[in-house]
Amino acid sequence: MSALRVAVTRAVGKAESLSSRLIAAGAEVHEIPLTRIARRDPAPLYMALGDIASVRWILLTSVNAVEILADAVRATGTGDAVADCYVAVVGEVTAQAAEAQGWRADMVPAQFTAEGLLDAFATRGDVAGSTVLYPCAVAARDVLPDGLRALGAHVVVVPCYESVPDVDGQRLLGRMLAGGELDLITVAAPSAVDALADAVPPEQAGRVQIASIGPVTSKAARQAGFRVAVEASPYTAEGLVRAIAEWRARAKT
Length: 253
Prior knowledge:
The chain is of the alpha/beta class. It has helices at about 15-25, 45-50, 65-75, 80-85, 90-100, 115-120, 145-150, 165-180, 190-200, 215-225, 235-250; strands at about 5-10, 30, 35-40, 55-60, 85-90, 130-135, 155-165, 185, 210, 225-230. The protein contains eleven helices and ten strands.
């Protein structure tokens, strides 16, 4: 991939894993954050942790959620009670982040999506009647809370962060695309797709090649008019780099 020029658009501090893997694979990497993480008022999460004794499951679907929950647990002194809860995560990276905080990931679905996690919950017999704490992004989909409620759980949804546009990154990426300096744009969330759409004139969207972390992000990219050239499998940084390498190899034949 020596000639492949790739933009990694994750927020500052979140791109290292993907960037390092792409560089190791021979890509020319440009870290251009299109979003940044903005934390919300922690009071609702503190309040939810005040009733942590009634919680059976904690649901974590991103590293951001893990980090914010960990800070809230330290602030409220609820570490011992949280340690007694079961922890469900959406994938291996989130599992590693949880374990770094001392929390064992009791459920990691085979398919790293909200749907995959819901399918895993559906196989268990201890969901009905249980309370699930779900610290999440402001714009998180309703798949998990709605699905868990259908299984009989009481779900406490606490939006605690949001992805907001990084204007400087948007401007830089727009200039680089206009100058023909990029071959592939990686996106790891629908919020990154939204920010990318704001940076690219609509008439140019169809010429932008996207490497997507998974099907939810791919769907958002296609709806915005972008061409999804690559989709990760599995839905991880490692899976995305492997898919990019395979795509590049096919393009050379």
